[in-house]
Design brief:
Two copies of one chain form a homodimer.
Chain A (H helix, E strand, L loop, with lengths): L2 H10 L1 E2 L12 E2 L19 E5 H18 L2 E2 L9 H9 L5 E3 L2 H9 L4 E7 L3 H13 L4 E6 L2 H13 L6 E6 L12 H13 L3 E7 L10 H24 L8 E4 L6 H8 L9 E5 L11 H13 L11 E12 L2 E4 L14 E6 L7 E2 L5 E5 L4 E4 L5 H5 L5 E5 L4 H4 L4 E5 L5 E6 L3
Parallel strand pairs in A: 3-19, 4-11, 5-6, 6-7, 7-8, 8-9, 9-10, 10-11
Antiparallel strand pairs in A: 1-2, 3-12, 12-13, 12-18, 13-17, 14-15, 14-18, 16-17, 19-20
Helix pairs in contact in A: 4-5, 5-6, 7-8, 8-9
């Protein structure tokens, strides 16, 4: 099934009452959502509802394509952020080289919806998970797959499995270089190089490249981060050169991959300098959060990246994901209770940011005054604190809408099986599915 | 469709590769999962995997049934915790009076899977959400539904909608009494009583009872909590008596509802004393977390409840929900990286609790020594810190399994579309679905 046919099947499926956000009392064909012409500002939908602004998505897709072209790098966006086939499709249609994923289950879902080139930015260890991936590679010679490895134990497991499955082709692996005190990955250049030799020599495996994740270096001190990221990118490049000097790479191209959603400019500029190896180098960024950005953690980091890139405000990545909910109760003068909770919006980095209020029927949403903030969330409720003495405390009423931005798209996407795409005036255009 | 037929449909559905936890490379009929005889301890499943211990579920179902019978109260367990039709079914089969839910979407899902008596423990405000519920009531005279209200604005919306939909029966409402500084609900007895009069007089509505949620009173000081809960339960009872004295209730029974998962014994004993009203009182508890309990926040509270009830250790509610994952990397002597993250286990109250380690093939899991703890989670990874100098630091290897308990079941269930049920030896018996 190619991408288009898989998408068609999603468009044709019947959505049953109870899908969050949908105002339906009968099953509805997903592809007919746009024709209903629901307006969020008229409170036509159910609430809470998760919204993707189509214009911001489009802008971000093109922005990232331009960025990668400018630096001469490829993009395998991290699909774990959205786990949405329609968004994967849009990313691939806008020049992405492949998709990055985190688990074998995610790989199986992406494959089902037409993704044919995957970088698993993780170790592959469980027998069932190794088998899941090798089965896809065995069944479909066009399916291109890469995984990470950081230990001899990992190499041994994968080599043994590849031999047992009698694979026609070798399993391509990238050696992961890690960071002291951080997540996975070899803790020294020497260990990483030794492991690269093991991979190159192991039956059923082949060394495809070198990988690292500089996103773990985001700390409280930006200057220190930048220095550490530059150093790490240099290490990755040096490791690649050393492995190449030992002729450990046998494939047509050598992969060099890093790049989260905070410092991918440092990665891109560092990788662009890796030249004159025995074969072409393919630098691959893996940012996942560029697609929707956010109104919190990543937006702050992206504004700094914009400044480094010399961009004016508004020219950079735009927040595309919002969660709207209704005021259910106004029990105290400075408190509004919203029908949105931990089941609906991220709370791991920051609580949602209340952006606008809107009375259905009014001409347009109004920015909320300073001092309005979500101070707490329960499973299904948010506590919106209003500034004492400000007119909003008297005005905001039961039935009004609150539009919120979020911080960290990954932990909002995973709360919604369906997100609605909207125009700039919050008219519903369609929907995208997620599979978590 | 009755409950049994709806469950059958879930058993007959094909699960596709990519459903978290399932070790499949071909679609599999859900009802055939048990026949595969997967063993978690043999690492047959995919990892991470969410597990429900069948014996603990069974124990908890019976324990709660006995508790309610002893106190003469009914149970409408909060379905938002699990959102699992099979678990709803088990709760109803074990004496639950109905299900509590939090949103109109959840009501639609429960109805689809055969639930015919729902207490919406929330305000019902959005036009689409009001319509969703009234449509179910209109279509099915056997569908019994109750919602909360805490404002005149709420009463006006519901009365208007009920009249516009030309309902054959009135919409039964419970007036919500709230707590200063907390969530929804009237902030004084006088306000609540005035609102009860409004409901009783509003076309299309009827006053069904009085409701509150004492679970918001869980604070750092237990004695203070207990005093506050007792006071609140007395207030609810007094409010009910006053509304009854004014002859505001016209239905056969008067509902009196409260009861989270921490202090439901205080609620039950307080409610049992409400007698000699104009008509029978139906006391309804709403605990959601009793079904699986946990290894963290709720387990601590339940151990205190056990002590109040005079139960020996092991006689109370048992933790039924675990998340198992594999060691993907051992990058440093005291650090193991697990393939389980924010996508897989609760992190809102406490991080998961690492309980046991197990090498596939070994005879049985071994309790982890003191000092082993999950110190951080990313989206797809956990950082398990091992005690320096202890043998476990040398022993724990890539490919070993770690079994974790969680804190707060609601925020683990919502990360799993399918959870596997297991025997005490971690053999997979079957699965339950969730709909978030």
């Amino acid at each position: 099934m190619n991408r288009t046919a898989a998408m068609m099947k999603l468009e044709d499926q019947l959505l049953h009452p109870g899908v969050k956000g949908l105002p339906i009392t009968q099953p509805l064909r997903q592809g007919d959502i746009g024709a209903r012409q629901w307006s969020v500002l008229h409170a036509d939908t159910s609430f809470p509802v998760a919204l993707l602004k189509a214009s911001a998505l489009e802008h971000n897709l093109q922005w990232m394509r331009g960025f990668c072209e400018r630096y001469g790098v490829q993009l395998a966006p991290h699909g774990k952020t959205t786990m949405s086939p329609q968004l994967f499709d849009a990313q691939l249609a806008n020049g992405a080289w492949g998709m990055t994923l985190a688990t074998a289950a995610q790989v199986q879902i992406a494959y089902r919806y037409g993704v044919r080139r995957v970088l698993l930015a993780n170790q592959l260890v469980a027998p069932a998970d190794i088998k899941a991936v090798l089965t896809l590679m065995h069944r479909d010679p066009s399916f291109e797959f890469y995984a990470l490895v950081d230990s001899s134990a990992g190499v041994a497991r994968l080599s043994q499995a590849a031999q047992q499955q009698r694979m026609e082709r070798r399993l391509p692996l990238l050696v992961e270089l890690g960071l002291a005190g951080k997540r996975a990955g070899c803790r020294s250049m020497d260990d990483a190089l030794a492991l690269a030799r093991e991979v190159a020599a192991a039956p059923g495996l082949e060394l495809a490249g070198i990988e690292g994740y500089e996103g773990l270096l985001v700390g409280p001190d930006r200057d220190q981060d930048h220095e550490a990221v530059r150093h790490f990118v240099t290490q990755l490049s040096d490791l690649l050169r050393q492995a190449d000097a030992e002729q450990l790479f046998k494939r047509g191209e050598i992969l060099l991959s890093a790049g989260g959603s905070a410092y991918f400019d440092f990665v891109a500029s560092g990788f662009a300098q890796v030249k004159n190896l025995s074969r072409p180098v393919l630098p691959v960024l893996r940012s996942g959060c560029y697609l929707t950005n956010d109104h919190g953690f990543y937006h702050g980091l992206i504004e700094q990246l914009n400044a480094r890139e010399g961009l004016e405000p508004g020219q950079g990545l735009r927040p595309a994901l919002e969660v709207w909910s209704m005021v259910l109760s106004r029990p105290e003068p400075t408190l509004a209770i919203l029908g949105m909770g931990k089941r609906d919006a991220s709370y791991d980095m920051e609580l949602p940011r209340a952006l606008v209020s809107h009375r259905p029927g009014a001409s347009a949403p109004a920015a909320l005054p300073d001092g309005c903030s979500i101070e707490k969330m329960n499973d299904q409720h948010a506590y919106l604190r209003l500034p004492a003495g400000h007119a909003i405390s008297g005005e905001l009423a039961v039935g009004d809408l609150i539009g919120c931005g979020i911080s960290h798209p990954c932990t909002t996407f995973d709360k919604w099986p369906l997100l609605l795409t909207v125009d700039d005036d919050y008219k519903v255009r369609g929907a995208v599915n997620t599979f978590f």
